[in-house]
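Hi support team,

I'm filing this because I wasn't sure whether my run with iron/sulfur cluster finished correctly. The job status page said complete, but I'd like someone to confirm that the output block is well-formed before I use it downstream. Pasting the exact inputs I used:
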Amino acid sequence: MPALILSLLILGLLLILASRRRLNWLGIPAGRLISLDTSRLKPVTEPLYDPDLGLTGRPDYLVQQGRRRIPVEVKSGRAPKRPHRSHVLQLAAYCHLVETTTGKRPPYGILKYADSAYKLHYTHALQQDLSNILGTLREAQDSSPGRSHNSPGRCRACGYLSSCDQSLA
Ligand code: SF4
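And here is everything the job wrote out:
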């Protein structure tokens, strides 16, 4: 299985394992519900890339706010009472990528759910948490095995086929 997919699995596991108490200690912001003017949203067509971290990603939208850009990630479900940690870290990664590519740090990002949106401050504590997670992922990647099978049929049915560099299909 390619390193990217393994990384995502490990990230998911790390997120599940993290306790609520630890989240509070890390300063993960609870977020503030806001209303969002969707007419100002600009779809993002090109992925953002940080060559130093080897990190790439594409938020669903960017909102121009003065000279800054605010990343917006859209989730299809209803807003939870508190944003999920995985969503928060995904948004933090987009904030980092926006800062890297524009040179301007977004003060916050937005998680848009079906019924409302959270405004999440891109704090230094959150940035540090993201950095720690990425470091853990890099260590895991360095020791990860490659594809674990030789079945083209399995690759043809795989949801990661289009982005997999080890596909047999
Ligand atoms: S396309 Fe094949 S090698 Fe790549 S992740 Fe899927 S099953 Fe594994």
